[in-house]
Structures are given as C-alpha cells and as structure tokens.
Design a protein that fits this description.
This protein is α/β, with parallel strands linked by helices. It is built from 15 helices and twelve strands. It has a five-stranded mixed β-sheet with strand order 10-9-8-11-12, sandwiched between helices. Strands 1-2-5-4 form a four-stranded mixed β-sheet. It has a three-stranded antiparallel β-sheet with strand order 3-6-7, with no helix packed on it. Helix 3 packs across helix 15. The radius of gyration is 29 Å and the shape is elongated. It binds zinc ion (ZN). The site of zinc ion has 7 residues, from loops.
C-alpha cells in the first residue's frame, strides 16, 4: 500500500451500499513500534491504551477507507506515559499522512468545493490539515536561510476588517512568513524568529511608507536599507491628481459652468491612464483639458513626470526627481505641494529602490494571490489557518502528491 514501516495484517468491508467502508488492519514494523509520540525514542510498552483505533485514509474504489491498529501507550523516560507513535499518521490525528498530504496538495491546486467533495471532509477539517502539513514542512527545512532582500506588506481580508502581514524573499519570490495583524508588534515576532545574526544579514527591505514597517526594520535590522516601492509613490500622485480634479470640478459646478464640469467628469479616465494606453478619444479629451483648464492639466503633467522618474536610469531618475520636487513645491496645487513634502521625506528610500532596482511588484503579485486565497479560507476556524494556506500555496510548503517522486 506504499505505507512506510507498516505491515498490512488483513482487510475487510463493513456496512452495505453507499455506507460501506474498507477497513485495513495494520501494525508498525518492529523497529517502528513502541516509540514515544513526542520524541520517537524506543520505550517500554505501558498498556494497551484505548484498544483499537482507526485513521481515515485515501478511498479505495469509491469507498471510504480506514487503517485500523492497536493504539498502546508507552512509558517514555522524558515524556511519561504517552500514546505510542504510529508511522502512518501524525500524533493525535485521525487521518493518515497520505490523506493529509493529498488534501493539502489538492487545496493548493484546485477549488475549495472540489477538495471538500472529492475527499469528503468538512472545510474546517481541511484548515486543520493544512496547518499541520505546513508546520511539518517548515520544521523540516529552515525557511529563513539566506534571507538578504525582503519585501514587507499587509493584505486585508474579511472585507478590509482584518489584516495579515506578509514577508517575501525577493530572491526566491516565496512568501517566507505571514501572520495576522499589521503593526510593529506583529513584525517584531518575525524579526525575533529570525534572530540577531540573520537580521544582521538583511541588506534591503522594500515596503510602502507604513511607519510601523519603517520602525521595526530600523530597530531590528541595523544593515538594512529601506526601499520605497515606486508603485506606491506613483499611486500617491494619482490620488493627488484626483483631489485636484475633484476641486476643479466642484468649483466649476458652484459657478454654474455645467459644460466645464461635465468635460472634467468625462476626462477622469483619460487623466488616470498612462499616456501610452490612451485611445484617440481620450487623447482628444486631454487636449480639451489642456486648453480649458490649466491647473488640472498641470496636475496631470506632475503625475506623469513623477511616473517617468521610475522609467529612467538611476542618475537621470534622481536628477528628474529633484527637478520634480522643485516644481511640485511651487505648483500652487495644494495636494501636490503636500505630496512634494511627503516624497522629500522618503527621498532616500526612493533613491535606494531606484539604485537596487527593487520594487514590490513581486510582493504585489504575491499579495494579489493572497487576496484570492482569503475567500478560500472562509470556514477555517482561525486566521492561522489562512496563514498556513498562504504558506502552502506561496511559501513552497505544498507536499508532493503521495507516491510520486
Ligand atoms: Zn519521549
């Protein structure tokens, strides 16, 4: 049956029709028998425990199947009287290792309903299964080896009510850690796990402008250079442009200039889009704005020039960034004057991102996938099951399909 260290004693069917099950009587091979379920040391047998026990395993020919075995207790010199370990299942779990791995693989590769229907397990059970599969995978190998360049971000779930913090390894593209919460305390847990030695080796951290990330990185990683994600910087400029657009539009409406107001409203998407993506119609709308509305067009150019900074070689980019800051400071558009202040405060981190060509694009794409996973986690009993699901799917913790190498 492909079971390690296991002897099949007999098999039988129980029940009738759809309710029929297959029961396979097994026992551990001698070298695997009478071992402590905590430390796996050989121990003397203590008693028969609760007698026979069953573990759900993969279906056999459309019938639910169970392994059945004696479940004696042993006396471990370190852990006292405990259940004996069995080679086919984790301690104190009602499913076999094969069953767990199969469910975990399916969860990472197919839909929620496919897993539930095919494996005939409740979704909350799936949550518990992937938690233990991921915990084992992470205990087997060090997920924090060789970390040098990190991306840190937050992802919302439960309709934006709750957050998890994710840490990505830029070199492998894997999510190496995730946890519920988005504050300094949450991130401190990660850096404490990492330990001072490995924190010392972190060279670059890319993140948005969240002060809590900034504070934690400064505190724990003395050699890390913070890189400000260009995507966030450009999105600030888009927000500032929208603020100007709303002001100008409200102003036009107050003055009863209906035609101007509707022109501005109609040009909304043209203002947002990158010039290279504009349709002929949108280009015409922008030209109208240029003729009729100086401030709004100026705001548009400010947004575009800031975007251009991130498409240039680093020296030219920094020169353009400084020219942009000078222009924005005296542009007489409040949202951009404010933005110039913010960006000046993050200039070092923006320069570092340009110099090291490190952006959160990879992290953003991982976070998009995390967002897709959050509805999958509905029905799990805890946020930690969502975290396990993230590590299973994006952290390289998915087991191979049982029996394939
Ligand atoms: Zn023990």
């Amino acid at each position: 049956m492909g079971l390690k260290n296991t002897v099949v004693v007999s098999s039988r069917c129980e029940g009738e029709g759809a309710a029929a099950i297959v029961v396979i009587r097994v026992r551990p091979r001698r070298q695997a028998a009478c071992r402590c379920s905590t430390c796996r040391r050989k121990c003397p047998r203590y008693d028969r425990g609760d007698g026979l026990r069953r573990w759900r395993t993969l279906d056999i020919h459309h019938r639910r199947a169970f392994l059945e075995a004696e479940a004696p207790r042993v006396q471990c010199s370190h852990h006292g009287v405990v259940a004996a370990a069995v080679p086919w299942a984790r301690h104190d779990v009602g499913h076999t290792l094969t069953f767990d791995d199969h469910v975990a693989w399916l969860t990472a590769h197919t839909s929620k309903s496919a897993v539930s229907q095919l494996m005939r397990v409740a979704w909350s059970t799936v949550g518990a299964i992937i938690e233990r599969v991921v915990a084992d995978a992470r205990a087997r190998s060090d997920p924090f080896q060789q970390l040098r360049r990190l991306g840190i971000d937050e992802v919302s779930y439960k309709r934006g009510q709750r957050y998890i913090t994710t840490v990505l390894d830029h070199d492998t593209g894997r999510v190496v850690w995730a946890a519920p919460g988005r504050d300094e305390h949450t991130l401190a847990k990660f850096f404490n796990l990492l330990g001072p030695q490995r924190c010392w080796q972190i060279a670059l951290v890319s993140a948005d402008a969240g002060p809590w990330i900034n504070n934690a990185v400064t505190k724990y990683c003395p050699n890390a250079k913070l890189c400000m994600d260009p995507f966030h910087v450009v999105s600030w400029a888009t927000d500032a442009l929208d603020e100007v657009r709303r002001e100008v539009w409200n102003d036009a409406r107050r003055r009863g200039q209906q035609a101007v107001a509707s022109e501005i409203k109609g040009a909304r998407f043209a203002l947002w889009r990158n010039p290279e993506d504009l349709s002929a119609r949108e280009q015409a709308k922008l030209a109208d704005i240029q003729r009729s509305n100086g401030p709004l067009y100026r705001a548009y150019l400010l947004k575009e020039q800031l975007r251009e900074v991130f498409h240039l070689p680093v020296d030219q980019a920094l020169a353009l960034l400084d020219r942009w800051l000078a222009w924005a400071r005296r542009c007489r558009l409040d949202p951009f004057v404010k933005l110039a202040k913010t960006i000046a405060g993050h200039r070092d981190a923006i320069a570092a991102a340009l110099r090291h060509a490190l952006s959160n694009a990879r992290l953003e794409s991982a976070n998009t996938k995390v967002r897709l996973l959050t509805p999958v986690a509905f029905g799990f009993h805890s946020a930690s099951a969502l975290v396990s699901l993230v590590l299973l799917s994006l952290g390289g913790c998915c087991p191979a399909l049982p029996g394939r190498t």
